[in-house]
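Hi U.,

Before I forget, here's the chain from the pilot set. I'm dumping it here mostly so it's searchable later in email.
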Amino acid sequence: MDKLRNSWELVKASFRVLSADKELVVFPIVSAIGTLIVTLTFALPLFLSGLVDSLFSERIQVAGFVVIFLFYIVQYTVIFFANTALVGAAIIRLRGGDPTVAQGFQIAFSRIVNIIGYAIIAATVGMLLRAVSERSRGLGRMVISLIGFAWNIATFLVVPVLAVEGVGPIEAIKRSVSLLRKTWGEQIAGNVGIGTVFGLISFGIVIFGMIFSGVAFIVLESAPLAIAIFVLIVIALILIGLINSTLSGIYAAAVYQYAETGHTGGFFDDSMVQRTFTSKATSF
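Structure:
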């Protein structure tokens, strides 16, 4: 419980960083727009040409895997680029600076080769895990899920390492694994905390939205009002998703900052976090 409370302090620190630099939400917006463009770029030609079904036929199955692999690489590149910009800007704030959106993008552009390299590695791992999972049943599929979970935890700090240290993708993975020894509790508990909070908020919005929409449509017999409520729900869920993504990036920056330097830049109580890291380090 102490570790969970300490981890939650890191989550609250992320809120404080976002309050100080509200423009950080720009990076998840860019990521969302970029991933949408990439998806449409790959999907539309296939649907319009009628090649979606034939792409996975035995005759050209290899071509199907190549297309998916390329899609993963481009998609991951866009996501990691935006995340690197976000984390880079957050690190500047944690270290006492006043970051701008331009500075975040400058950091990401300066790391673009390493970002693409890491996207290729992540796409390869994702394809392999997906291929094995599709051919597995029961316990085998569960084992693959655990491997995927372990990969996500082990690479949690790759983006901060790329943003700050400018090393290659393989070295960044090694550094992330090395820092995992100090930070795994914060990684898991903090991400669960963020995901749980925003999951509950989203669930509440959907439930109340459905109730109000039903009342508007059935009781008040107002279809325009019901549609307006539905649109507001969608907008609210999009905003929640953007804030969730922003806090996750800030949180990764905060975990990296403390693991690397031993301080957090004054956004929360360093001594409290120090007790968590010290107790965890002595337990290994």
